[in-house]
Write a structure and sequence with these properties.
This protein is mostly helical. It is 72% helix and 0% strand.
Length: 327
């Protein structure tokens, strides 16, 4: 009882702090404690666990999904509509399971919830599911809606998160000016919150928008600061992205030697990723594609074919999830 109550209360705080992997582990441990637990607290803990798992980059684990679904069966539908997180339980489970059809169905029937923050979270998850379905326009539409609702709720983590993924989507679709302004606001909000990773992912994407807008010097300076040694080591997936971007800048700028050095440094980061990380195929495809293009430019067609073959294989193996598409 007490463990689940505490987990339900602290789970959102851990999520806001960016401790998604830690939140997922701690919430699961609390839910596995034997004994009865209040249904609203249990529903909230399950919702936060599923959302944290989905966003932390781990591949869906069927045995955990089945276990949590069994627990969810003991909770009546929407046990307390005034408890915002409880409403998110079913949509979050479908998000983690990558069940697009069921997830969209459960979200759509909840979008009239009276609470702005809950509506924002529903739009956020709907955006991720839309991306899983290959619907970038739908993702952008729902992220815009989420940003509006988070603004209405006045909640900084949600405002930053919606702007982070909206900025990435806009960058992907070529709206670099809008992407830059949204990502800059996201970085500011996350610094206010004191998130543990220092908004590194957002800074990498922001640097890429600077480059696309023609400010290569600013983009390069930002990325070099990210990959520089730090008192608190930065997550490897973010330094990987920064090094890959530096390699791209060097390659397009004609400095093929530096491009090779940056791609090799990114490969070193890649080699240290946990084997279960969901982003491995996507990142591998990205690195092999860039290395293949570099090999073509250098006239090494044998290496180019090898890298590009590997890029295709990795791309086909990648889960089409926004949490894996870090660049």
């Amino acid at each position: 009882d007490l463990s689940v109550r505490l987990a339900a209360t602290l789970g959102l705080f851990w999520t806001v702090q960016g401790r998604l992997a830690d939140a997922a582990v701690l919430l699961r441990r609390a839910l596995e404690v034997p004994g009865p637990a209040p249904q609203p607290a249990q529903a909230a803990a399950i919702a936060l666990w599923a959302f944290s798992e989905a966003m932390s980059g781990g591949a869906p684990r069927r045995h955990l999904i089945d276990s949590m679904r069994a627990r969810a069966q003991t909770v009546p539908p929407d046990p307390d509509m005034d408890s915002c997180v409880c409403t998110l339980m079913e949509p979050a489970l479908h998000l983690y399971a990558d069940d697009v059809t069921a997830g969209l169905r459960e979200i759509d029937r909840r979008l009239t919830h009276p609470d702005a923050w809950t509506r924002a979270m529903l739009h956020l998850m709907r955006a991720f599911l839309a991306a899983n379905h290959g619907d970038m326009a739908g993702q952008r539409r729902d992220l815009r809606a989420a940003a509006v609702e988070f603004d209405a709720a006045g909640e900084r983590w949600g405002r930053a998160t919606s702007r982070t993924f909206l900025g990435y989507t806009q960058m992907t679709l070529g709206d670099f000016g809008l992407a830059a302004s949204g990502l800059a606001e996201s970085v500011r909000l996350l610094h206010e919150l004191g998130v543990g990773d220092g908004a590194v992912m957002q800074r990498v994407w922001l640097a890429e928008t600077f480059w696309k807008l023609g400010n290569t010097a600013r983009a390069r300076a930002e990325l070099l600061e990210i990959v520089a040694p730090a008192a608190v080591p930065r997550p490897g997936r973010y330094t990987f992205l920064a090094r890959a971007a530096l390699g791209d800048m060097a390659r397009f700028g004609g400095d093929l030697a530096e491009a090779g050095q940056q791609y090799q440094a990114a490969a070193d980061d890649f080699g240290r990723f946990p084997a279960s990380a969901l982003w491995i195929p996507g990142f591998g495809a990205m690195l092999h594609c860039a290395s293949g293009h570099l090999a073509v430019t250098c006239g090494d067609l044998v290496s180019a074919v090898r890298h590009l073959d590997d890029a295709v294989a990795q791309a086909l193996a990648a889960a089409d999830m926004p949490r894996s598409e870090e660049r």
